[in-house]
Amino acid sequence: MAKALAQAAADPPAMPAQHILSFARDLSGGGVERALLRLTGAWARTRRVTLVLGRADGPLRAELSPEVELIDLRVSGIVPLARALPGVVRRMRPDLLFCPGSDYTSSAAWTRLRLGRAAPPIVAKQSNAVRRGDHGALADRAHRAWLALHGRFLDHLVAMTPALAEEAGRATRMAGRVSVIPNPPSASKAGTALPPLPDRFVLGVGRLVPQKRWDRLVAALPALPGIALVLAGDGPDREPLVGQAARLGVADRLHLLGHVPDPLPLMARAAVLALVSDFEGAPGVLAEALSVGTPVVATLSSPAIPELVHGPALGHVIARDDAAGLEAALRHRLDPSTQRPPPQPRPGADSADRYLSLFDALTARRR
Fold first, then answer.
1. Apex CA 181: angle with CA 347 and CA 47, to 5°?
2. CB-based contact 100:36 (threshold 8 Å)
3. Which residues partner with 228 through β-bridges?
């Protein structure tokens, strides 16, 4: 099938995917949603694109392209969104349904179950690693059983790196129906003003949610005298992090900036960017930091991490629960004698077009 899709993508199909429909919970600022807005904005230059949102509010609303047709369901949570999606797809009759991340595949499954053969081709992006660091043995078995069902309701899967694609292909039993397409890079916004910042700081960029484990960085602060921790993002873990910093006596060195529309200038100022999650997919923040010459320290939260941090000059990859290793890696990168890496090229400039070629091939094959 992969060979047939490649041939179909090479030859322009007679009836391409003229109408693409995608969906998301809200615009609160997650990496999956940021990438989705970049993709839909690029697709909308040549195709009709509909974006269904549970709630069309949040700090990312300013990044929504005016060319994208918006449907605001005015519901909160993934379950109400999933319930409404089949009816929207039935009414809108798109040529293709794009599932933007791993947390949304249940909505794609429900749509396929409800619509059956009337459902359009469904393409999903594998945005998380198969092995999640927050799962115990029972939850891990249940998660793997769920992934093994994906080939029954998805037509194709997209992963952002080769290692992630190989892992996802095995877990979903979709080998031969997996493509590698990186996320499109974000563009720096001219004239972005930075807030007041400490002289030397470790930077974290991402939502303040349990998956990201920012508590690991707060716990490392007492071992890094004179160094501040700056977190760009917001979420339910904000108050617990403030409380943890107060208990450790480092509250004055924790700076919570909230959502930052353009983190690239902030990354360029940081001594090091740290990503200490339990699980990730192919985190764009690592590529963004390296593109401005900022070294990174990351937990081995995905098989894509070593692909992104592919040499010791770029940074350190450590085990998830290695507190001593985290402190040592941060101290090394914070040492003024440690050389910063040269800026690294960012992949994904043609990602939107590669997605469209895949969509056209699937649509032509279905028709």
1. 105
2. yes
3. 201
Whether the Cβ atoms of residue 76 and residue 54 lie closer than 8 Å to each other:
yes
| Residue 81 amino acid letter | L
Pairing mode of beta strands 48-53, 156-159: unpaired
3-class SS at 189? coil
> Would you tell me which CATH number, out of the four given (1.10.10.10, 3.30.2310.40, 3.40.190.10, 3.40.50.2000), belongs to the domain 2-185+349-366?
3.40.50.2000
pLDDT per residue as tens digits for the range 164-218: 999 999 999 999 999 999 999 987 776 677 889 999 999 999 999 999 999 999 9
What CATH topology corresponds to 201-334?
Rossmann fold (3.40.50)
Edge-to-edge order in the sheet of strand 315-318 = 254-258, 228-232, 201-205, 272-275, 296-299, 315-318
Q: Do domains 2-185+349-366 and 201-334 have the same CATH topology?
A: yes
All residues at 6 or more sequence positions from 342 whose CB lies less than 8 Å from its CB, including other chains: 293
Give me the DSSP letters along 309-346: S-STTTEEEE-TT-HHHHHHHHHHHHSTTSPPPPPPPP
Summarize pLDDT for 287-328 with one digit per residue, the tens: 999 999 999 999 999 999 999 999 999 999 999 999 999 999
**Domain ranges (residues) in the chain:** 2-185+349-366, 201-334
Q: Any idea how long the chain is?
A: 367
Token look-up 């993508």 returns 9
Listed in sequence order, the residues at least 6 apart from 50 whose beta carbon sits closer than 8 Å to its beta carbon are 19, 20, 21, 22, 68, 69, 70, 71, 92, 94
| Nearest CA among 216, 241, 248, 210 for reference residue 326 | 216
